[in-house]
Amino acid sequence: xxxxxxxxxxxxxxxxxxxxxxxxxxxxxxxxxxxxxxxxxxxxxxxxxxxxxxxxxxxxxxxxxxxxxxxxxxxxxxxxxxxxxxxxxxxxxxxxxxxxxxxxxxxxxxxxxxxxxxxxxxxxxxxxxxxx
Length: 132
Hints:
Elements: H1 2-19, E1 24-30, E2 35-41, E3 44-50, H2 56-66, E4 79-85, E5 91-97, E6 100-106, H3 112-128
Antiparallel strand pairs: 1-2, 2-3, 3-6, 4-5, 5-6
Helix pairs in contact: 2-3
């Protein structure tokens, strides 16, 4: 009887944990050489990209264009670890080096408008990496 009670309690706890985990999606695409993984949950939106080093300048220029009038790096930067402010007040965290990019957006600390803008940014990175 004790085992049944413990098993029932464990299953109930697991079911409650699953129900309260919130919504989360993850998309990973690859063309064999380059890959982009986008994770989206209740708290954060994250883009992790690995691409041909020759595309680094294109990716970084695209991001710089998206955060105008701010500029977060120059074309000479080898490594980037920066917090960038968007024109609408949104903030993104960026880490980049030749052939790699990680972009993190805190959904709780930013507006819905900024979230949609950063989602477009993630889609643009996918296009540049040619993994769509």
